[in-house]
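Hi V.,

Quick status before I head out on leave. The structure for the redesign project is tokenized and pasted below; the design run finished overnight.
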């Protein structure tokens, strides 16, 4: 597994507060920005993550999160590539691993704008870069937050595998899943554009006793999948197993899997260390099986 190469990563909070928000989506934005900083910051460099609350009179408060590094910075001629689909910036001369697909900032901008926020940056070549984003927040009291945490812990308790023994198909799925992942350590990703399919797959996996609350993530299209898998790997997080739909808007599962395998090849990651990817589709024609296998599905 690729490990983080930057020596120092600091996290600073301007205040002590609790907010209610879509944590997974906004974590995805932070993951994207942190991954980029790590790629372009040498081993002896440093990265600072700052979280601060911005109060607005008569309006919802906002949270501002920034990622600042003292890496190489971005040349002006390359800044036009930022926030553009597949707009990658390579640097092989300085000995940095800058492999990427060029989707992170595009997706981050879309997510932040859903929360009535903005994302921007300032950079000076050979001095460093700061990316920051803001989004509206709903404040909650600490007592309410503790109650919410307790409820989440109760809901995340694994179900007893015996509950699926009466169903032959589910029992076989459980046995196969056991061969692929460690239920308490590994991470699983489910990708589908249909909410019903996501909920169904999550429920099926939860029945096996897998910790879906803390170790399962979801994406709604191929672009999000490529971005999340590649950027997670860059900071040392690996998805052991991925379930992906074939037909999705923006980018289908076949193209996404092809890009993911391409990324790992360019990063010299052996196949046995890459995610196990299973295609999920309602199509039964053999052509779909061939397309999936050719793209790199297992």
């Amino acid at each position: 597994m690729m490990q983080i190469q930057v020596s120092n990563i600091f996290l600073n909070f301007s205040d002590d507060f609790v907010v209610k928000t879509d944590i997974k989506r906004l974590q995805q934005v932070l993951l994207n920005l942190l991954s980029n900083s790590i790629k372009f910051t040498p081993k002896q460099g440093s990265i600072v993550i700052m979280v601060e609350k911005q109060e607005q009179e008569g309006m919802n408060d906002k949270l501002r999160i920034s990622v600042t590094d003292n890496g190489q910075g971005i040349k002006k001629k390359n800044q036009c590539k930022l926030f553009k689909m597949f707009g990658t910036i390579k640097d092989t001369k300085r000995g940095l691993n800058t492999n990427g697909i060029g989707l992170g900032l595009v997706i981050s901008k879309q997510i932040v704008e859903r929360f009535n926020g903005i994302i921007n940056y300032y950079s000076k070549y050979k001095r460093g870069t700061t990316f920051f984003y803001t989004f509206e927040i709903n404040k909650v009291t600490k007592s309410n937050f503790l109650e919410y945490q307790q409820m989440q812990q109760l809901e995340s308790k694994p179900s007893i595998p015996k509950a699926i023994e009466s169903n032959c198909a589910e029992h076989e799925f459980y046995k196969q899943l056991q061969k692929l992942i460690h239920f308490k350590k590994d991470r699983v990703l489910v990708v589908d554009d249909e909410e019903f399919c996501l909920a169904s797959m999550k429920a099926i996996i939860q029945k096996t006793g897998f910790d879906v609350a803390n170790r399962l993530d979801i994406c709604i299209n191929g672009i999000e999948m490529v971005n999340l898998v590649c950027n997670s790997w860059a900071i040392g997080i690996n998805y052991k197993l991925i379930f992906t739909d074939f037909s999705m808007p923006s980018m289908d599962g076949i193209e996404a899997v092809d890009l993911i395998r391409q990324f790992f090849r360019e990063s010299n990651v052996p196949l046995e260390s890459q995610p196990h990817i299973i295609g999920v589709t309602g199509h039964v024609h053999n052509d779909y099986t061939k397309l999936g296998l050719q793209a790199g599905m297992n």
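Above is the designed sequence. The two ends are 20 Å apart (CA to CA).

G. will cover questions while I'm gone.

Best,
W.
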